[in-house]
Structures are given as C-alpha cells and as structure tokens.
Design brief:
The protein is 37% helix and 24% strand. It is an alpha/beta fold.
C-alpha cells in the first residue's frame, strides 16, 4: 500500500484515510477543506488501497453491485495501517468515504488507538454490519456519520437499506455513550466525496480537542 502525506509530519494529530484513485484526485482539495474548518495543525496520511472490495471488507460477502465479491481482508489492512500509528505522543483519527468509511468504523471496534472515526457516506448496507455493532463494543467515543439524502433511494434493494441502517447505528452508538452525529448531505452517493470527507474529519477534530 502506497502512502501520500499532507500537512505537517511533526503534528501530534494524525489522520489516517484509506483511498482509491478517485479519492487521490481530490485529496488536496479535501485537505485544504479540513485545514480551513479546524484551527489546528494536522497531518493526513492517505493510504492507497489495492483491492477495494477485498481489502476494506470486514468479512466475506457476495457481490451487491457488479460481479466482484467482498473478500473480507480488512484485518490485514488494519494491521498495515496500525504500523503508521506507533508514536504514543500523537493522536490518531481514522476516516474515509464509502466502504472506507465502513472500514474506519469497523476498525474502532478492533483497537482503541483511534481518538475518533470520520465515516462519510459509509456502506452501512454491508451485510451483517449493524448486527455486528449490536454484539460488540466500540473502542472510541467520537463518531461522525453522514449520508447523501438520495442514497437510500438507490434502485439496488440492498444498498437502499443504507438509510435505515445508519439511523439505527447512530441511535445505538448514542445509547452507548458515544458522541455521535448523523449529518445528511444533498445528493446521491457520488456527490462531493472530498467535501463530505473533509466535513467528517473536521467534526471529529473540533469535537475532541
């Protein structure tokens, strides 16, 4: 996995974000939006994911769109990302968009290294994920969730469950004492991913420091 770094490498606030090629096209704009939304020095490490459906899915699941199944290799990816979080004097946050947002939320159930989760338009429709949340304890106390207001109107019946699942997730997290917001953005899943992700990171930063 190749990394791309933005901001001050000496900052004690580090943002970890799994990305694909489309995210990388907009990552500089995203970082600028984060910087303008919070009054603090941050270091963003964007990690290029080689196989999106395989490397970010917490367990195996059949294809929901297209023909590519979900491989369930998120544990391997998380092990690699944790190698970037070895300075005990720094605070680490994890976030991402779409399946990367779901991965970020899942990661906070595996380790307490992350101060907050920035899950922008996460794939909450992923089979079994909300049930997983019910049965396990999250290890962070700050979670940002968002969704486009047209995402739950998708023609795909599984993906159309995303609205109900994310509402359920927010209620569940708040009941467990997590500082959690659910923000609705205008548009479908493919609109303004960079701005939505920047808003997500800015919220967890401004609500933790």
């Amino acid at each position: 996995m190749k990394t791309y770094e933005f901001g001050n490498a000496d900052s004690n606030i580090v943002l970890i974000q799994p990305v694909d090629d489309h995210d990388l096209e907009e990552i500089e704009n995203e970082f600028a939006a984060i910087s303008s939304s919070c009054d603090m020095n941050v270091h963003l490490i964007a990690v290029r994911i080689n196989n999106w459906n395989n490397d970010l899915s917490p367990w195996e699941a059949p294809a929901v769109f297209g023909k590519e199944n979900f491989g369930g290799d998120a544990s391997t990816t998380l092990c690699e990302l944790l190698k970037l979080c070895n300075d005990k004097g720094k605070k680490y946050y994890i976030g991402g968009y779409s399946l990367a947002g779901l991965f970020a939320l899942w990661a906070a159930y595996q380790t307490d290294i992350f101060e907050g989760v920035a899950a922008a338009s996460p794939s909450m429709w992923f089979p079994g994920f909300v049930d997983y949340m019910k049965k396990n304890e999250i290890k962070t106390d700050s979670v940002y969730l968002s969704l486009g207001d047209r995402e739950e109107k998708a023609r795909n019946p599984i993906m159309a469950t995303v609205g109900d699942r994310i509402r359920e997730a927010q209620i569940m997290l708040k009941e467990k004492g997590v500082n959690c917001i659910l923000e609705w953005n205008e548009g479908n899943h493919f609109k303004d991913a960079d701005i939505r992700t920047a808003k997500a990171f800015a919220w967890v930063l401004n609500n933790k420091n």
